[in-house]
Amino acid sequence: MPRGEVAEWFKAAVLKTAVGASLPWVRIPPSPPEFSLDDVHEAFDDKNARTKDGVASRKKSLRRGGNPWVMREDIDVATMFRGTIVSAHSYIETTMGELSLRASQLSIYANIRPNFPYGADQRISFVRQAFAFGPLKRYQSWANIVLNRFASDARLRHQMAHARMQVMPGRVVFHDFPRGDGAAPTVYSQPFTLVELERLAWKAALRSRAIQRLMGRLNATGILPTWESCTQL
Predict the structure, then answer these.
(1) 94 C-beta neighbours (distance < 10 Å), count
(2) What is d(CA 15, CA 25) in angstroms, rounded to the nearest whole number?
(3) Phi-psi region for residue 222, left (φ > 0), alpha (ψ -120 to 50) or beta?
(4) DSSP strand E in 169-225: where?
(5) pLDDT for 11-65, tens place per residue?
(6) What span, in angstroms and rounded, lies between the C-alpha atoms of 198 and 77?
(7) Minimal CA–CA distance to 217: which of 137, 127, 139, 124?
(8) Alpha carbons 232 and 166: distance in angstroms, whole number
(9) What is the Cβ-side half-sphere exposure of residue 41, based on CA atoms within 13 angstroms?
(10) Measured in Å, how far apart are the chain's first and last C-alpha atoms?
(11) Distances from the Cα of 156 to the Cαs of 160, 180, 191, 200, in angstroms?
């Protein structure tokens, strides 16, 4: 039996003396065979390509299928930048949700929250109202900077989270079907260079850090109730 695998059926001697984590009649299938993307490249390499110095190593560094002229490093970098943008925007939106929940527990803000703001636009609206008066008023300019920039990135947020990414030589293209006002859906393609994508990731990270520092300041002042007290309601 291969290392790390399990027996096809439970042994009778074991079943008589102990009860395993799985029910006795459950059959555990074996693990799938080991497989790597390099196996695909090697399978399509001809015999001469595998014997020439440098050819095989270059083919292993090509992108995972599709355009053979795009290096795997470009795929990894583009994916990293996209992940950074999505992660930063997710952090900002989640922090706005936490801020909305904690601020709504104060009696002065109770009348502006009929329902918990689940959507991004609803959270922006609630946080903007909360920082317009009351104890949060002194941090209004700070909050508005974060909110305005986050709101201006609405299309970018949607692209990074939902669009299909196509990495091509010299650029990265995101293909999406934007929602229109009753119009027929159309394909929207937005190209970026890796340098442009890196700058967008850098900006998103800075905005994420800005709201993180704002929340740190609010936590230090004790203006808002703690997160723990809100989640126990």
Answers:
(1) 12
(2) 11
(3) left
(4) 171-176, 188-192
(5) 444 444 444 544 444 444 455 455 455 554 554 454 444 444 444 444 444 434 4
(6) 9
(7) 139
(8) 45
(9) 20
(10) 53
(11) 6, 16, 12, 9
Which residues fall within 8 angstroms of residue 142, CB to CB, at 6 or more apart? 210, 214
d(C-alpha 133, C-alpha 109), whole Å = 9
Q: pTM (2 decimals)?
A: 0.67
Query: Starting from the edge strand earliest in sequence, which strands make up the sheet with 164-168, in order?
Result: 164-168, 171-176, 188-192
* Alpha carbon distance 59, 152 (integer Å): 41
On the CB side of 86, CA atoms within 13 Å amount to 12
The label of the residue with tokens 């490249």 reads 41
Cα(143)–Cα(28) distance, integer angstroms: 54
**Three-class DSSP category at 5:** coil
